[in-house]
Amino acid sequence: MARPFRCQYKGAIYHVTVRGNERRAIFRDTQDFRRFIDKLQSLVKLHHVRLYGYVLMSNHYHLIACTPRANLSRFMQQLDTSYTVYFNRRHHRWGHLFGGRFKARLVEGGSYLLSLSRYVHLNPVKVREKRTLPVEERRQWLAEYEWSSYRGLAGLARTREKAVVPEVVRAFGDPESKTASVAYRRYVEEAIEASDTELVQRLELSTRALGSDAFLRETERRFQAAAARPERWVDISRRRIESGPVPETVTAAVSAAFRIAPQALSGRGNSEARDVWMTLLREACGLTNRQIGRLLGHADGATVGKRLRDQAGSLEYQSTIRDRCASILREIANCKA
To answer: Which structural domain, as residue segments, surrounds residue 120?
Structure first.
């Protein structure tokens, strides 16, 4: 059976939704919420994703994101896998945390992005136990809700999260100005009591896209073109869309950075160097786990996949690896220049 594929291209904007398996809680307490946000902020930077907004609820979450590198699947795979590893270890459980693959609807941008942002950020006051409260109480709850990008964008937090790009605030003026933030807050609060009928109608037109009729037609054309390709069972993200450094260049750069011979990367020991090497081969060169595994002398990519998942389970170690990767990529860029 063919796997569902993702329509991915440079500059695409998505509304991503992920739910807990059997709608169970994926965040049990403050520590879980904070750890997910830490991972989100870290991986947005690593994958060069432009995050326009997010909301975390007890059993699901929403992201609004733009992917200049057409790498949504890779970003989401690492985000969900790393959080699952953390959650299962902390709560002494095993198995799937999320209910299937994430859903991603393409978004046209402009007014559609703005109205979607309002719709997503209003999640905390649209749940059953809150929707019957007086408007002022719901407004207060929304203003105080911590697990969302709304407070930063609306000027209600002391500082705005660096990982969140204030694209939706731009509709009201300079996104760095207090005036624009206040205007965005008023725009969101206007819909606390009423439903955005126009947006709901547009959402019902397609499960694949949100936008004008022309955008919906273009999205359908993209999906049909992707479905007609022989490799349709593979995520579009798994094909190299950008031109990155070749594996030989990365191997030489990692060897030089850690002052070891290239052949030592596939031998015993040198675990940090090997983790950096594998991460760069996958993220910068676009190699699959199987291709990396073969470079290491393995029959497939299972060992590589497990090692990268284990690495993602430790935010501190992952941060170290990411910093080393960034440093090596800068060296490669300098050499090319």
So the answer is: 12-225
CATH number at residue 69: 3.30.70.1290
Does the residue 62 lie in any domain?
yes
Contacts of 186 (CB under 8 A, 6+ apart): none
Handedness of CA 318, 321, 326, 327 (dihedral sign): positive
Question: Which are the contacts of 324, defined by CB distance < 8 A and separation ≥ 6?
Answer: 257, 272, 276
Return all residues near 220 (Cβ < 8 A) that are at least 6 apart.
Answer: 206, 208, 209
Q: Is the pLDDT of residue 22 over 90?
A: no
Asked whether residue 84 is assigned to any structural domain, the reply reads yes
Encode burial over 46-69: b for 16+ CB neighbours within 10 A, e otherwise: bbebbbbbbbbbbebbbbbbbbeb
Residue 144, token pair as written in the block: 């105080």
Cβ atoms of residues 151 and 245 within 8 Å: no
pTM of the predicted model over 0.85 = no
Query: What is the pLDDT at residue 244?
Result: 57
- The answer on 168 and 80 residing in a single domain is yes
User: Could you give the dihedral angle defined by the CA atoms of residues 288, 228, 11 and 331, in that order, rounded to the nearest 10 degrees?
Assistant: 30
Report percent pLDDT > 70 for the chain: 91
Please state, rounded to an integer, the average pLDDT across all residues of the chain. 87
User: How many distinct structural domains can be found in the chain?
Assistant: 2
pLDDT at residue 132 tops 50: yes
- pLDDT for residue 63 is more than 60: yes
Q: What is the CATH number of the domain that holds 261?
A: 1.10.1750.10
pLDDT of residue 236: 34
Same domain membership, residue 141 and residue 270? no
Task: State the average pLDDT over residues 67-81.
Answer: 92
Residue 170 pLDDT = 95
| Residue 107 backbone dihedrals phi, psi, to 5 degrees | -125, 135
- Spell out the residues 6+ positions from residue 109 whose beta carbon is closer than 8 angstroms to its own: 13, 211
| CB-count burial class (<10 Å; 0-12, 13-18, 19+) for 200 | exposed
Q: Are residues 175 and 210 in the same domain?
A: yes
Q: How many other CB atoms are found less than 10 A from the CB of residue 268?
A: 7
Residue 242 in any domain: the answer is no
